[in-house]
Design brief:
The complex is a heterodimer of chains A (about 300) and B (about 325).
Chain A: H1 2-29, H2 34-38, H3 48-57, H4 64-76, H5 90-125, H6 130-144, H7 147-161, H8 180-206, H9 209-216, H10 221-239, H11 241-259, H12 264-273, H13 277-305
Chain B: H1 9-18, H2 29-39, H3 41-63, H4 95-131, H5 133-148, H6 151-177, H7 185-216, H8 220-227, H9 232-268, H10 280-287, H11 296-323
The chains are: A mainly alpha (about 300), B mainly alpha (about 325).
C-alpha cells in the first residue's frame, strides 16, 4: 500500500517538473523585456545602466537553467510571479477570483451528480431503447457544441424568446436566479461523461450474479439499484473526477467571458486581452496542478473505496 | 454485420461460377467499410453536411456577394434585404459573405492542423513504439505533460506567446530583408493559430499510434509473417499500416472537429484568427455586444458552428462503426 502511494507520487513529480519547464520555456522566450514591462512608466528617466542593474538585481541575466531552478523553487513556494498589468501577485489575483469559481464548480458538480447519475442509470435500465438513445444522444450533442456557442443560443432562446430569465451578467451569489444559466452551461459538457460512465458501469454490474440473486429473491427494482447496483457502479464515476475538473476549468474560461462573473476565467480573459504573459503562465500552472491533484486524489482514494483493488 | 448471403464462402463461390468474371464482386476492407457506412443514416447525413461545408469552404469566397472585409459605415446594422441577404454587421460588412468566408477559415485551419498534428503524432508515436527504451519514455512524458495541462489553457498560452514572438520576428525580417512575405500579418496570424492548435492536439495521435503498433505487432498474423521471413519493412507496410489505418482515420475525423472548435474558441477569446478575417468564433464574440438587439448576428455563426461540428462527429461515429467493427461499443443511437 505505502509503496503504491509512494510510486504514484513519484510518477507525478516528473510530470510537474516538465510542465513547469514547458511553461517556463514559453515564458522565457516570449518577447518583452520583463524590466521594461515592469517599469513601463518610469522608463523615460532610466539609463541603460539602470536597466542593466535592475536586470542583475532580478537575476534576469543568469543562464536558462539557473533561472529555471529558481523559478521552480518559487512556484513550489506558491509564488507565480507578478502581473504586468495590475502589478499584483498572480497568486493573489487567483485567490481573489477563486471563491466564485469554486462555488460555481461545486454547484455544477452537484448538478452533475443529481442529474448525471439518475440519467445514466435510467439509460442503462432501458438499454437500447429510445429512452437510452435520447439520453445518450442529447448529452453527446451538449458535449460536442462548445460553451460559447451553447451559451449565447440559450440566452437568446430563454431570455429573448421565452422571457424566462433576466440578463445574467455579474455575480450576485449562488442562490440568485442569474446563476442558473452559468451553472447549467458549466455542467452541460461533462454531463455526457458522467452519464456514459454511469451507464456503462450499471450495465456491467447488472450482468453480475449477485444482481440475478437479488432479482430471484424478489427484491424490488429500486432496492436492487440503490443497494446493489449503484454502490458498485459509482466507482468508475469517481475516476472521472480529473476529467470533470478539466471540463470545469475549460467551462469557467468561457462562462466568465459570457457572463462577466469575476471568477478564475475572468483572470484568464483579462490576461489574454493584454497579453499579460506572467498571468497566462500562472493560471496555466495553477489549473494544471488542479487537474494533476484531482487525478492523484482519485488514484489515492480508489483503493479505499474499492476493496477489490489489490495493491 | 456481414453482407447477407455473400458472407458464406460457398454461396459466394456458387455466385461467382454463375457470373461472368467481369461481374464478380470483389470484397475488400474498404468496400465493406463503405457499405457499413452508407447503411448508417445519421453518419450519411453527417457526411453530406460535411461535404457541403467543404464545398462552401472551397467555393464560398468566390460565390460570396461581398468581400469579408468590405466595410460601409453608412450601411451598418442593416436588417436583411435584397442587397444584403442576411443584413450587415456593425461595421457594415455583409453578414452572409462573412459566414461564407468563415467556412473557409474553419476548414482551412482544421485541415492544416489535423495534417500537422497527425503527421507529428504518427512520427513520434511510431518512433516511440519502435525504439522503446528512453525514447519511448521521453515521448510518453511529453504526451503526459501536454495532456495534463487543460487543453484550452495550453492553447491560450502557446498562442499568446507565439503571437508576440512571431510578429516581432516577422517585423525584424521585413525591415532587414524588405520581402513582402514578411509583411502580411494575416499569414502570421494563421500560422500561429494553426501551430498552437497542432501543439495541443498531437498527443492524441501519438498515443493512439503507439498503442496500435504495440498491439498489432503481437498479433498472430504478424508473428506468422515474421516466421515465414517477411522483412520488418514489409510487415510494417503490409500488416501494421493497413490495420492501424482505421483507428487513425477515425481519430483524424474527431480531431478535425476538435481543431475546428479550438480555432473558434481561440478566436472567440480574442486570440486565434484576428479580425477583419472572418472566423465563426470571432463573429460570435464581435456581435455578442448586441445580442439583445440583433440576436441573429450571434445565433447564425453559433448555429453554423454547432451544425458543422455535430455533422463531423456523426461522420466520425459512423466511420468508427464501419472501420473498426470489432471495437464497437454500443454507446449511442445508430
Amino acid at each position: 500500500m505505502a509503496r503504491y502511494l509512494l510510486n504514484r507520487l513519484l510518477t507525478t513529480i516528473p510530470v510537474i517538473f516538465i510542465v513547469l519547464m514547458l511553461t517556463f520555456t514559453l515564458g522565457f522566450y516570449a518577447p518583452g523585456d520583463p524590466i521594461v514591462l515592469i517599469y513601463n512608466e518610469n522608463l523615460s528617466n532610466m539609463t541603460p545602466e539602470d536597466l542593466e542593474r535592475l536586470r542583475n538585481q532580478y537575476g534576469l541575466n543568469r543562464p536558462y537553467w539557473e533561472q529555471y531552478v529558481d523559478y521552480m523553487g518559487k512556484v513550489l513556494r506558491g509564488d507565480l510571479g507578478v502581473s504586468i498589468a495590475t502589478k499584483l501577485p498572480v497568486t493573489q489575483m487567483i485567490r481573489q477570483a477563486l471563491p466564485i469559481s469554486v462555488t460555481l464548480g461545486l454547484a455544477a458538480g452537484a448538478v452533475l451528480i443529481l442529474l448525471g447519475i439518475p440519467l445514466g442509470v435510467l439509460a442503462a435500465m432501458r438499454h437500447n431503447s429510445w429512452v437510452d438513445y435520447t439520453i445518450v444522444g442529447t448529452s453527446m450533442v451538449f458535449r460536442t457544441i462548445p460553451v460559447f456557442v451553447l451559451g449565447p443560443m440559450l440566452m437568446i432562446v430563454l431570455i429573448l424568446q421565452l422571457k424566462l430569465l433576466d440578463v445574467p451578467l455579474g455575480w450576485k451569489g449562488l442562490f440568485h436566479q442569474q446563476t442558473i444559466l452559468p451553472i447549467a452551461l458549466l455542467a452541460a459538457a461533462p454531463l455526457a461523461d458522467v452519464i456514459r460512465q454511469t451507464r456503462v458501469a450499471v450495465l456491467e454490474v447488472l450482468s453480475h450474479d449477485y444482481v440475478r440473486t437479488a432479482q430471484a429473491k424478489g427484491l424490488k427494482t429500486w432496492v436492487i439499484i440503490t443497494s446493489h447496483v449503484l454502490r458498485n457502479a459509482l466507482l468508475p464515476v469517481v475516476t472521472s473526477l480529473g476529467l470533470i475538473v478539466n471540463a470545469l476549468i475549460h467551462g469557467s474560461v468561457f462562462i466568465d467571458r459570457i457572463f462577466t462573473l469575476g471568477g478564475f476565467g475572468e483572470v484568464v480573459i483579462n490576461s489574454i486581452k493584454l497579453l499579460d504573459i506572467p498571468v497566462i503562465l500562472g493560471t496555466t500552472i495553477f489549473s494544471t496542478l488542479l487537474v494533476i491533484v484531482a487525478n492523484l486524489l482519485v488514484d489515492l482514494v480508489y483503493p479505499f473505496i474499492d476493496p477489490r483493488v489489490r495493491l | 454485420m456481414t453482407t447477407t448471403g455473400l458472407g458464406d464462402p460457398s454461396v459466394a463461390r456458387r455466385l461467382d461460377a454463375a457470373l461472368p468474371p467481369s461481374q464478380i464482386k470483389v470484397r475488400n476492407l474498404w468496400r465493406d467499410a463503405f457499405n457499413r457506412l452508407i447503411r448508417n443514416r445519421l453518419s450519411m447525413m453527417g457526411l453530406f453536411v460535411t461535404l457541403f461545408f467543404v464545398a462552401l469552404a472551397i467555393t464560398g469566397p468566390s460565390l460570396a456577394p461581398y468581400s469579408y472585409q468590405q466595410q460601409s459605415l453608412r450601411r451598418a446594422n442593416e436588417m436583411p434585404s435584397r442587397e444584403h441577404l442576411l443584413g450587415t454587421d456593425d461595421l457594415g460588412r455583409d453578414f452572409l459573405s462573412r459566414l461564407m468566408w468563415g467556412a473557409q477559415t474553419a476548414m482551412l485551419v482544421a485541415t492544416v492542423v489535423t495534417g500537422i498534428a497527425a503527421v507529428l503524432g504518427v512520427v513520434l508515436g511510431g518512433i516511440a513504439a519502435y525504439r522503446g527504451g528512453w525514447v519511448d519514455w521521453i515521448v510518453g512524458r511529453l504526451v503526459d505533460v501536454t495532456q495534463s495541462i487543460p487543453t484550452i489553457m495550453l492553447a491560450i498560452l502557446v498562442d499568446a506567446t507565439l503571437q508576440k514572438s512571431v510578429t516581432n520576428l516577422f517585423k525584424q525580417m521585413y525591415t532587414s530583408t524588405g520581402l513582402e512575405v514578411f509583411k502580411g500579418s494575416l499569414v502570421i496570424n494563421y500560422l500561429v493559430t494553426m501551430s498552437a492548435i497542432a501543439f495541443v492536439t498531437w498527443p492524441t495521435y501519438a498515443r493512439l499510434i503507439r498503442s496500435q503498433i504495440l498491439s498489432i505487432r503481437e498479433r498472430e498474423y504478424v508473428e506468422a509473417a515474421r516466421s515465414v521471413g517477411a522483412s520488418s519493412g514489409r510487415i510494417l507496410m503490409r500488416h501494421i499500416v493497413p490495420n492501424a489505418l482505421g483507428p487513425i482515420i477515425v481519430a483524424a475525423t474527431f480531431g478535425f472537429s476538435s481543431a475546428m472548435i479550438l480555432e473558434a474558441s481561440l478566436s472567440y477569446l480574442g486570440l486565434g484568427i484576428q479580425p477583419p478575417a472572418a472566423s465563426w468564433g470571432g463573429m460570435i464574440n464581435d456581435n455578442m455586444f448586441q445580442w439583445r438587439v440583433r440576436p441573429y448576428l450571434v445565433m447564425l455563426p453559433a448555429l453554423v458552428l454547432a451544425v458543422a461540428t455535430l455533422a463531423i462527429n456523426f461522420l466520425g461515429d459512423g466511420l468508427n462503426d464501419a472501420l473498426n467493427p470489432r471495437s464497437r461499443v454500443s454507446s449511442g443511437p445508430k
